[in-house]
Amino acid sequence: MTHATVARLPVQRRFHVPVLLARILLAVGALLLWEALATFHIVDEFWISKPSKVFPAIVEYLSTREGWYAVAVTFYEAVWGFILAMFFGVISGFLITRSEYIKSVLNPFVGVMNAVPRLALIPLFIVWFGIDSLSKVMMVFMICYFVVLVNTISAIEGVDRELVLVARLLGANKRDIQRKVMIPSSIPWLFAATRICVGNAVGGAVVAEMVAGNGGLGFMVSAAAAMLNLRDVFVAVIIVMAIAYCCDVLLLKLERRLLRWRPSAMAS
């Protein structure tokens, strides 16, 4: 360990501890504000409920088999749609960029399809795939696929051409360039797309369940809202937020581990 590294460690600790403390204070402050708005009748409790009722309800809900089943259904739909979108999005992105002609032909179609409102496709998916989990998986797939595809194309187009030229001068063939230059250079873009898609996947599964579902957290939101039970709506929303946050934290840790060679990752 060099002297510069040793000197930098206290600075890093001084940086990270206040950030964590600020996050905790921000979350606690938001909860206290929410509680105060309802307790002092600034906003009617009927409309916003309050944390002292919502969080015990979360614990009670997750202590039942039905609660964990709803979480599992939503998680299953989000994960499978996300995995399919990542797989086909990355593969098709690399295939499209292999030929300038194919990229020029397909580029306007990709833009048009990416602009289609995903919620407008839910009725079609229900007719095509039914109201079971398959329609929700396909909905999540459509939400995430074009995000991954566009980011993959942008990643490959953004590869430093000097690196490609150097690789060719060193005798690398097309497969070597793909494996040792294109893919490593694309990973940061793909992680950015992945973190975006995680939230979109969970949210898309919930919305699809709200429109036509027979289980999952989205179905819980829809049923609770129909009964004007806003406490349970907040219960489901907070659980969804917790799932998305945990997935994002795991992806961020994985990104830092896999991209330790990047200067920004080394600095953090």
Describe the structure.
The chain folds into two domains: 16-42; 49-259, MetI-like (MetI-like fold). Helices cover 85% and strands 0% of the residues. The chain has twelve helices and no strands. The radius of gyration is 23 Å and the shape is globular. The mean pLDDT is 84. Its main location: membrane. Belongs to the binding-protein-dependent transport system permease family.
Q: Main β-sheet: number of strands, strand sense, barrel status?
A: none
Ends distance = 17 Å
Uncertain ranges: none
Helix/sheet category: mainly alpha
- N to C succession of SSEs: HHHHHHHHHHHH
Q: What do the pLDDT scores average to?
A: 84
Q: Looking at CATH, which topology of the largest domain would you report?
A: MetI-like fold
What is the share of helical residues? over 70%
* Rg, Cα atoms, Å: 23 Å
> Which of globular, elongated, flat, extended, rod-shaped describes the shape?
globular
Give the number of DSSP strands.
0
**CATH top level label of the largest domain:** Mainly Alpha
Give the name of the CATH superfamily of the largest domain. MetI-like
Number of domains: 2
| Strand residue content | under 5%
